[in-house]
């Protein structure tokens, strides 16, 4: 998280989680505070990588959540990544099968 996000979370904690108090302090509307908090929650959640989840896909999600990349670009990269991973897995399977056949001779 950047300094601005950490300051926002600090202010949030000091307001005991009151979005209304935080909105008053920042001089913005409650929905704006809620949206900002939701983005931070998504950012925190996206840093937790469950076992077996693809790190590249998680990185794309993080970049979208941070506003560095638009969703459409991330989706295109995700599809290309899945295709490359699938092709690599198929190639390994073919090579393994070929090696088994050679070993049986």
Number of helices: 5
Helix content: over 70%
Which quaternary structure do these chains form?
Answer: single chain
Integer tally of domains: 2
- E-strand count: 0
Residue ranges: pLDDT <50 for 5 or more in a row? none
Q: Structural class, from helix and strand content?
A: mainly alpha
Q: How far apart are the termini?
A: 58 Å
Order of helices and strands: HHHHH
Mean pLDDT across every amino acid position:
86
The percentage of residues in β strands lies in under 5%
Q: Can you tell me the overall shape?
A: elongated
Structure commentary:
This protein has five helices and no strands. It has helices at 3-14, 19-26, 30-46, 55-65, 71-104. The termini are far apart. The model has no long low-confidence stretch (mean pLDDT 86). It folds into two domains: 1-48; 51-105. By secondary structure, it is mostly helical. It is 78% helix and 0% strand. Helix 3 (30-46) runs antiparallel to helix 4.
SSE map:
Elements lengths: L2 H12 L4 H8 L3 H17 L8 H11 L5 H34 L1
Helix pairs in contact: 2-3, 3-4, 4-5
């Amino acid at each position: 998280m950047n300094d601005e996000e950490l300051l926002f979370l600090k202010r949030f904690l000091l307001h005991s989680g009151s979005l209304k108090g935080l909105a008053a302090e920042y001089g913005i509307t409650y929905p704006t505070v809620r949206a900002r908090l939701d983005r931070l929650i998504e950012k925190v959640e996206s840093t937790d990588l469950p076992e077996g989840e693809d790190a590249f896909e998680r990185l794309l999600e993080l970049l979208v959540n941070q506003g560095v990349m638009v969703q459409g670009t991330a989706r295109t990269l995700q599809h290309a990544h899945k295709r490359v991973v699938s092709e690599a897995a198929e190639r390994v399977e073919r090579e393994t099968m070929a090696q088994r056949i050679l070993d049986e001779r």
